[in-house]
Amino acid sequence: MTYRLFEGKEHASSYWKYRISPSDQLIQLVLDFLEKQKGRPFELAVDVGCGSGQGTVLLAKHFTSVVGTDVSPAQVEVALQNAKEQNITYRQCVAEELPFSDSSVDLMTAMSAFHWFDRPRFLQEAHRVLKPSGCLALLNYTIDMELSYPDCCSHSLNEICKEFYVALQPYRSPHLGRSSIELYREAYESISYPDKEW
Length: 198
Known about the structure:
Oligomer: single chain
Largest sheet: 5 strands, parallel
CATH class of the largest domain: Alpha Beta
Distance between the termini: 25 Å
Shape: globular
CATH superfamily of the largest domain: Vaccinia Virus protein VP39
Strand content: 15-25%
Low-confidence stretches: none
């Protein structure tokens, strides 16, 4: 089942303002993996469940064309308002029915979105549209992590964060369970591609 959240205009604007973006280092790891698999040039990247486009814009300087897709018209509207790069377009569609030809996509990403999709159907759709040497990157972050900061007591910092996570737990979607990392591990194990990295 697909979960439809984050669709209102106010939420989409807040998403643009506050949503965590992947780091440049993480994007570079994905690009290095893609280059190892298929080489350059990088033609088409598709960012599925793009929300308001934070991750989509990170791909623009590396690809001839980048398309962000999202189920929410409000998210796509905010993404369009913030897209400055000429090679980015946005499409409203569900993740499980993408408007791309078979074997046409070099890189498909889902940045903090895969856990909301009908995962088996999305993985089939990704397989359909990816080029034989294309790459699927499922990116996410977790709140159950150890934090550190220079000149700060790590123990105190992590104790405060644990209290914060406990306070957030009642508001967490039951669909995600206690941690979305298990959903990603399950997907990773189910993907039968010969070359994959965690």
